[in-house]
TrEMBL record:
The lineage of its organism: Eukaryota, Fungi, Dikarya, Ascomycota, Saccharomycotina. PANTHER family: SEVEN TRANSMEMBRANE PROTEIN 1-RELATED. The chain crosses the membrane at residues 6-29, 41-63, 100-118, 138-156, 168-187, 207-225. This is Putative vacuolar amino acid transporter YPQ2. It comes from Wickerhamiella sorbophila. The keyword Transmembrane helix applies.
Length: 254
């Protein structure tokens, strides 16, 4: 019914949507909570540094169009999450939370940018010098190392606190969706080449992203399982005391 390039393009767009929704929705939930303490600082640092490395790796390594779009969108949303974390850490008193409304335009703008993005070019034209591709792939491995390390740190933080805090499980559901879509896109695309040699060369170039997406997907499953193991508590600062309360039902069940 669909040719392989069409399937690859569709799954690539699904991957973009998954990664964008993951970051934007968590920004919205953290704004509602007024806290980002449920995140491990290493998780956020790992994601931002990984995003920077990923942007370099994608553009220097002549990666597919959907990977370049994801790298930029992820850098924007993860940087905003890191800034949000710093802001709430510095904020010592409970104040009316009006920042959630300000994030809605960010969500809309991100989705419009994705929908208006140019069609994903077929990756059959992998160009660039050998040195440039080597640099790009080195940064890709660095990015995936930071990504996997970040989710491991978050899982360890949840384990130590025996709670998933105010981190929405939808963050990891969308992450899992994005990782699986990325894997599907790469594998389907590898079948569009005219020869087996070209297919293997393409998969070799995409190896960091294959390994990273597979490991991140596995860790997302672990993190989602933690939502079944641990209660979801929010941390609310009340003067000088920290009180643990049950989350409101409007987003606590998500």
């Amino acid at each position: 019914m669909f040719d392989l390039e069409t399937v690859a393009t569709i799954s690539g767009h699904f991957s973009i949507v998954g990664w964008v929704l993951a970051g934007v929705y968590q920004l919205y939930v953290s704004a509602l909570d007024g806290t980002a303490d449920s995140f491990s600082p290493f998780f956020l640092v790992g994601y931002v540094v990984g995003d920077i490395s990923n942007v370099v790796g994608c553009f220097w390594g002549s990666q597919m169009g959907f990977q370049k779009i994801i790298s930029i969108c992820s850098l924007v949303t993860d940087s905003l999450m890191a800034l949000q974390f710093i802001y709430f850490r510095r904020k010592q008193s409970l104040q009316p939370r009006r920042s959630a409304a300000l994030l809605r335009p960010v969500a809309y703008a991100s989705m419009v940018a994705v929908s208006m993005a140019s069609p994903l070019e077929p990756p059959s034209k992998i160009g660039g010098s050998t040195q440039q591709l080597l640099i790009g792939q080195s940064f890709a491995w660095l990015a995936e190392t930071f990504y996997v390390g970040a989710v491991v740190q978050q899982a360890l933080k949840n384990y130590e606190k025996k709670s998933t805090g105010a981190v929405s499980r939808l963050l990891f559901i969308f992450d899992l969706f994005g990782s699986l879509s990325t894997l599907l896109t790469i594998f389907v695309t590898s079948r569009t080449f005219g020869s087996t040699t070209e297919s293997f060369d393409f998969l070799a170039t995409e190896l960091p992203y294959l390994v990273g997406a597979a490991l991140c997907a596995a860790m997302d499953v672990v993190l989602l399982y933690q939502y079944r193991l641990y209660p979801c508590h929010l941390v609310v600062l009340d003067g000088y005391q920290t009180i643990s309360v049950e989350p409101p039902t409007k987003y606590g069940s998500i």
